[in-house]
Amino acid sequence: MMPLAAYLSKMILCSAVLYLYYHIALRNNRFHQWNRYYLVLITLLSLITPLLHIPLPAIQEEPSVMMTYTTRIITLRESVTPAATPADYLRTGVIVIYSLVALLLTGRLLISIIKIRRLIRHSQVTEIPPYRFARHNAIQAPFSFFRYIFWDLHTPMDTPAGKQILRHELVHIREKHSTDKLFMEFISAIGWINPFFLLIKRELALIHEFIADKNAAGEEVSDYAQTILQMTFQSKQFAITNDFFHPPIKRRILMLTHFYQPRFSYLRRILVLPVAALIFCSLAFAADKHPSAIRMQAAAGNRAITVTPVADTSTPVKKKQVNTPKAAKETKKVDEVNEVFTFVEIPPSFIGGENELVKYLSANIKYPKAAQEKGTGGTVFAQFIVTREGYITDVRTVGARKGDGLEEEAIRVVKAMPRWQPGVQNGHKVAVLFNLPIRFSTTEEKAAAALPSPSRPIFTFVEQPPVFPGGEEALARYLSKNLQYPAAAVQQKAGGTVFVQFLVEADGAINAVTTVGAKKGMGLEDEAIRVVKAMPKWKPGKQNGREVTVQFNLPVRFQMQ
Questions:
Q1: CATH number, domain at 383?
Q2: Three-state DSSP class for 287?
Q3: Would you tell me which of 246, 326, 453, 550 could form a disulfide with 541, CB atoms 3.0–4.6 Å apart?
Q4: Domain TonB C-terminal spans what residues (predicted)?
């Protein structure tokens, strides 16, 4: 209902402004062909412009919180259709009434066409190229329709008045005025709620008569005007035909005797261009409200890759020269012209998957000597951009600094990574901001973590992530079946993406369920937490062959339809 109402409002506004310009600057002037094309074009412009949505780049504000991915995140776009309300019935009723009126008016148009075709079949038709001449006793006055000229039995053709009428109808055929009429009748039927379409249709029919009168009268303006006056009271049979006796007579005669050229005639016609451009830009262009990222909070104390100091008996691993100067230059150019996303449909991934990433980090990260000597450890969050070509750029660390070379080592290894599989959004490869947590710990800490204890470490990056029983499709089915749109959210038409964060324990149980990110309210968070808490046990994640506790983030989108 809302999209239809918005479209109709824009359509009426567009046609109102452009018709108002015509009424003020162009109406009752002698450039009839210009006015004819203008009226047809503003009708098309009014119909098409509201349908266009040309996005303008929006200014992106710097995020105030850290944005990150949780590895193996499952994106569920849940569409919940709420129960019908009185407002829904009202919207449906309005749409049905509008459609019925449009159908009736279109039906009336089709009936008129059928009657004309029936009249042709029952008339005496004579082929006189480039037109066909039809006569029948049911014809009340001369008129034309496409290639046919319909002539009554009471109007002689060999008189001066008859010849003028014939020339008049021949102009209609030559200029293809019936096409304009049929088009405007159809548009007025389906867009009957727009009063300006009716005004445009009436003006266009008059301009057709002005064009035909001007060509048919020639030098005999007085005699032609007298013929119009004498035949004033002849009736009009069809709305879609071109009748010689078309009212209002006063304006037709005025146009015949209107010989002077108005001031600024050319300027009046040219000034419509900025007016049309203003309307087009106002209605067709819109700020791009598509978010470049969805905020998520990074969990503290996450554990992804554990690095322990070992005896360094081998030669240091050399940094892989992947980001060549040429590649870096190209990547920089790409980043300057492309938006950087932090949440996409398909996230970027290390070539070969998570297991290969674990192997790469385990093989290349070296515990800094200064950190070994001082016993410094902790989790370093390496943040970087995976460009749409898969290059790693803008590597840095975020969060509290650990020091003693831990951050520098993490940055060194990440910069040396080979190209990744880039992220995908709306079918296009895009640049994505990625966070990789790396935990540096001593051998003693690692051994303690391996012991059975109620304070088992919480992982966010493991070799085998936890899985819902049956996989992602089964998870999507479970959420679709159990999620219920909160009544308060339905009434307020609230929606959005709720990020549920929880722990999948080593035995598969769901624990510590909460939500992160901006609160939507209206019961959306409570409903998401309720459904997640009711989940069956998952298949737990594994690290180094052991089942471990893993933190998991699940986005649930509530969307009104």
A1: 3.30.1150
A2: strand
A3: 550
A4: 352-449, 470-561
